[in-house]
Specification:
Elements (H helix, E strand, L loop, with lengths): L4 E2 L4 H5 L6 E2 L10 E5 L5 E3 L1 H5 L4 E9 L2 E11 H8 L2 E2 L9 E7 L4 E5 H4 L9 E6 L2 E9 L13 E8 L13 E5 L2 E5 L1 H6 L3 E9 L2 E9 L2 H7 L8 E7 L4 E4 L1 H5 L5 E7 L2 E10 L12 E8 L1
Parallel strand pairs: 1-7, 3-12, 13-21
Antiparallel strand pairs: 2-11, 3-4, 5-6, 6-10, 8-9, 8-12, 10-11, 13-14, 15-16, 16-19, 17-18, 17-21, 19-20
């Protein structure tokens, strides 16, 4: 779990150079540095050798190379652990780590953003790694890999920067019960309860831990993607969405979790046969229910 410091896209682009970056260990270039910064108390820069000195994790990942699906055995450092070491500056709020975004980029301008809640082993438990070795051969620069994804769309080669964001939106009052306020990078619009109800609905049977017990619910409503499309909001692999409850509770997800992480994201309008007064964010696949946000008044959309 993360330490708290109180307030003090395309797949082709992702796969560029796969199979060509491996190099003997002696060829590692410490000029391939990775800087982690943003809303953190302990920013730092890692060289390849300092990354290699950290505890390593071995994992398998499948990648399509020139039309052929191959399985690689990789070794690297968990992204969540690097963020933990940087000590994000968090507010004094319940499950404050769920307000954190992690953007991984390279010098070519490619960027992918994660919700820390997806990576955290206590919540989403869907890890990402900075791989340093592939099939026993050292890479010349770190490569971001998400082994649990259905594709390599979130792979970033030659990672050079990790930027941590902490987001603290506050709830607004929707104009009518059941409606949603969508704040898209300075532009606010409203989807009414009837507009939400008119969107194609999906039914999910979800289970998650809540406190010392488990919960199971039937949730019905449009997907987050459908809601964003209805509002004509453009999203990509660098987009994050904060769900803000009427009580001020905040949790962040990314559309990419549903696209390639195979984690359905639902804006539930009905739970266990009962119509909800306000929509609920549902994150199917999370271990704990921290990113299940009840009484959602606002969806705040952003990118790095």
């Amino acid at each position: 779990m993360i330490r708290r410091s109180l307030l003090a896209v395309a797949v082709l682009a992702a796969l560029g150079g796969i199979g060509a970056e491996a190099a003997p260990a002696s060829a590692r270039a410490d000029s391939a540095n990775v800087t982690i910064g943003g809303a953190v108390a302990a920013p730092r820069t890692y060289s390849m050798s300092s990354l290699a000195a950290l505890p390593q994790t071995t994992f398998s990942a499948r990648r399509r190379v020139r039309g052929e699906l191959r399985t690689y055995t990789d070794e690297g450092v968990p992204l969540e652990g690097l963020v933990d070491n940087a000590e994000p500056v968090l507010p004094d709020a319940k499950n404050a780590l769920l307000r954190v975004t992690v953007t991984v980029g390279n010098k070519r301008g490619r960027r992918v953003t994660f919700a820390l809640g997806e990576l955290d082993p206590g919540f989403g438990d869907h890890p990402a790694y900075l791989a340093l070795q592939q099939n026993g051969r050292a890479l010349v620069a770190p490569r971001l890999i998400v082994p649990g994804d259905a594709s390599a769309a979130r792979t970033v080669s030659r990672v050079s920067r990790i930027t941590v964001g902490v987001h603290n939106p506050t709830p607004t009052t929707p104009p009518e019960a059941g409606s949603l306020m969508l704040q898209d990078r300075g532009v606010t619009q409203v989807l009414s309860a009837s507009q939400l109800a008119s969107l194609p609905a999906r039914t999910l049977e979800v289970t998650f831990e809540a406190g010392t017990s488990g919960q199971q619910h039937t949730e019905i409503g449009p997907t987050l993607d459908a809601v964003l499309r209805a509002a004509r909001i453009h999203v990509d692999f660098n987009t994050w969405v904060a769900a803000v409850g009427s009580d001020g509770y905040v949790a962040i997800v990314t559309p990419a979790e549903a696209w390639v992480g195979e984690r359905p994201l639902l804006i539930s309008l009905n739970e266990d046969g009962q119509t909800l007064t306000q929509p609920r964010l549902v994150v199917d696949g999370d271990i704990k229910g921290g990113r299940y946000v009840s009484g959602v008044d606002d969806l705040v959309i952003g990118s790095f």
